[in-house]
Structure formats: C-alpha cells, structure tokens
C-alpha cells in the first residue's frame, strides 16, 4: 500500500532532500513551505501524481487549516508527519538580540510545530502513524548566541518525549532527530544572506549534507512498527564538544 508523508520546510535543505528520498521509494509526499516557486520546481522534476505542494506560511494557523482541508482525497491519509520547517535568526548574545527575531523563531519552531501536530494527531492515531520532529544539538548543548534558537529546539525534543508518553498504546511512534552541523541554507538564513559567513562555517569541515539527514529520516520512518527511536543525535565526524568558558576578573 502506498504510504503518505507530510514534510514541512520542503523548499530547501533537509526537507527538499527528504521529499526526493521518499518519492524515490514510492511514497506519496505532501511538501510545504512558503516559496511556491521552489515547490513548483519539485513538481516539475517529479510530477504531481505522488507529490502535492502546499504553499503557506506555517506561522499562519488559518492558512495551515485551509491547506489541510483542501488536500485531495489521495493525500488525506497521512502516515508520517515530519516537522522540519524551522530556522535560526542571528548569533548575537541575548542582551543584544532582536526581539522580533526571537518571536519569529518561537512562532515557527515551537508554535507552528505544535499547531500542525495538534491538527494531525487524530489522523495519525487512526493510522498508527509516526511523527518525526527535527530538533537540534542546540537543544541539548548551549553555545554563545544560541539563546532562543536552542530554547526552541529544547522544546522540540521535550515535546517529542512528552508526545511519546501521551500516545502510549496508540501505536503512534515519535522521534526527535537532533542533527549537528549540516550544510543547507540554514546559515544563510541565520546571517541574513551572508554567503561568505556560510562558506566560512562549512569550509574544510566536511559537514553533514541534506541527503545524509534525509536518509536518517527515511531510516526512522521505515523501521519495523514495533520499534521507536526516541532521540537520535547525529554529527559530522569533524564536529565534537568543547569546554566550559570561565570569566576571570
Ligand atoms: P533550510 O533553511 O535549508 O530549510 C528550512 C526550511 O524551513 C525551508 O524549506 C523553509 O521554507 C522552511 N520554513 C522556514 N520558515 C518557514 C515558515 N514561516 N513557513 C513555512 N516554512 C518555513 O534549513 P535546514 O534544512 O538546515 O533546516 C531544517 C530544520 O533542521 C530546521 O528546523 C533547522 O532548525 C533544523 N536543523 C538544521 C541544522 C543544520 O545545521 N542545517 C542542524 C540541526 C537542526 P520557506 O523559506 O520556503 O518557507
Ligand atoms: C543547527 C545546529 O549547532 O548550528 O541546529 O545550532 S547549530
């Protein structure tokens, strides 16, 4: 039977790679994001038989509801939800950060993720489906300038574990995937379009790729139904841990 997956943030990075990965395996894919032209490019490349684009700002709850309500019959039975849409904005210390950027991260990474999950829970329970949330190592390991971004990802991880508890006995699986450094448009977005900063961060480091993470999402989504990976933390070999900082007078 053809299974259906909804992937948010499918216009770039992990989400776009995951769309390709699941289509290649014969799934039906609902792909969301704001940039309609990027979604259209996916349709142009893969056809619309098993791919349904939904262009909306995930922070707009009414637009989200309307998009879900308008799904064609073939795409209504969602088996897997991948909550991937998200962003970091800025690297300034909290005391210099933009409140507007903080709010955008919370609205996108936390509120929209919870809203979409809430909307799809009845259908996912009915189909004994799965929820795969894209968190981050930033939710576990603080770093200077990570402030609200890290806080939003800590929410994603803890929300995932809480969902597991609540969904006990329903057969619905929930996984928090927590990647480290991966080269996507993430740093371009975070820096307001600074390509040189993005190149400096990833240059010579052999970061993970979007396809690496898409493979991990696919692995989690296709595990035997009696297995649940609760949390999955993944880094490139070139990335590891550093020490605490000490201020001296
Ligand atoms: P990209 O910037 O390449 O992709 C982010 C995606 O999120 C885009 O498709 C974008 O679509 C979508 N998105 C952002 N804001 C909105 C919005 N308001 N409405 C709808 N869609 C939105 O980054 P990544 O692929 O790297 O990021 C994917 C996820 O992975 C994020 O949650 C990120 O925090 C997380 N992550 C990334 C890591 C990395 O190193 N790259 C590491 C750990 C976690 P559009 O702009 O078209 O709306
Ligand atoms: C993205 C990874 O370390 O840049 O979530 O915050 S990090």
Automatic annotation (TrEMBL):
<dbReference type="InterPro" id="IPR020904">
    <property type="entry name" value="Sc_DH/Rdtase_CS"/>
</dbReference>
<keyword id="KW-0560">Oxidoreductase</keyword>
<dbReference type="GO" id="GO:0016616">
    <property type="term" value="F:oxidoreductase activity, acting on the CH-OH group of donors, NAD or NADP as acceptor"/>
</dbReference>
<dbReference type="InterPro" id="IPR036291">
    <property type="entry name" value="NAD(P)-bd_dom_sf"/>
</dbReference>
<protein>
    <submittedName>
        <fullName>SDR family NAD(P)-dependent oxidoreductase</fullName>
    </submittedName>
</protein>
<feature type="domain" description="Ketoreductase">
    <location>
        <begin position="3"/>
        <end position="184"/>
    </location>
</feature>
<dbReference type="InterPro" id="IPR002347">
    <property type="entry name" value="SDR_fam"/>
</dbReference>
<dbReference type="InterPro" id="IPR057326">
    <property type="entry name" value="KR_dom"/>
</dbReference>
<comment type="similarity">
    <text>Belongs to the short-chain dehydrogenases/reductases (SDR) family.</text>
</comment>
<dbReference type="Pfam" id="PF00106">
    <property type="entry name" value="adh_short"/>
</dbReference>
């Amino acid at each position: 039977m053809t299974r259906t997956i909804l992937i948010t943030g499918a216009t770039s990075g992990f989400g776009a790679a995951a769309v390709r990965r699941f289509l290649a395996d014969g799934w039906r894919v609902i792909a969301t994001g704001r940039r309609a032209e990027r979604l259209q490019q996916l349709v142009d490349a893969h056809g619309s038989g098993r791919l349904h684009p939904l262009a909306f700002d995930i922070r707009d709850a009414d637009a989200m509801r309307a998009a879900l309500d308008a799904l064609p019959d073939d795409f209504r039975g969602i088996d897997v939800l991948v909550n991937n849409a998200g962003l970091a904005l800025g690297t300034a210390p909290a005391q210099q950060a933009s409140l507007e950027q903080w709010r955008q991260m919370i609205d996108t990474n936390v509120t929209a993720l919870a809203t979409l999950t809430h909307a799809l829970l009845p259908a996912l329970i009915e189909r004994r489906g799965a929820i795969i949330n894209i968190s981050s190592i930033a939710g576990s390991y603080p770093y200077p300038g990570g402030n609200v971004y890290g806080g939003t990802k800590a929410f994603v991880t803890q929300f995932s574990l809480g969902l597991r508890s609540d969904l006990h006995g329903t057969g619905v699986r929930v996984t928090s995937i927590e990647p480290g450094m991966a080269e996507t448009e993430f740093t371009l977005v975070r820096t307001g379009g600074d390509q040189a900063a993005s190149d400096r961060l990833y240059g010579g480091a052999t970061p993970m790729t979007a396809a690496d993470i898409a493979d991990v999402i696919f692995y989690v989504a296709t595990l035997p139904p009696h297995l649940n990976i609760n949390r999955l933390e993944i880094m490139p070999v070139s990335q590891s841990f550093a020490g605490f900082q000490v201020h001296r007078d």
